[in-house]
Amino acid sequence: MSEHEAIVALIGKSCLTLDDGNFESYLALCAPAYSYCIKVWSPELRKDMVWLEHDRDGMAGVFESLPEHLQRSGRLSRLAAVATIDAVDADKFDVVSKFIVHHTDVEGRTQTLAVGRYNDRVVRIDGAVLLSEREVELETRDLGIGLHLPL
User: Cα 117 vs. chain centroid, distance in angstroms?
Assistant: First the structure.
């Protein structure tokens, strides 16, 4: 598999593991120094709002605490399209992907929940490509209630 294909597959797997609620497998795709952040631009404040920001251990804590939170019934489906892959150096890549998240309720009705951009830093460690940073840049500012999952 080429480097480009491995990076595209990594982004795809990150979506699939979250869709399946397989949080352990999601974290296995992440480097030890992983960081995750959700930002959204506020025209009223004229600056980014940070809705979630954690390192790898913090994300593990988010996943562990999910059963304690009110959850939206149904299923989320994420679709990401890799737009650019830029080499920073031989073992670091900046990857930009556009994404859309759909929610399908228990009656089978599907609606768009969120759209935005993943700004990822991918690193190669011992031959494996891993996420080291994911900044979620949301266009959607109203996600409703009961969403405690990473996008």
Answer: 9
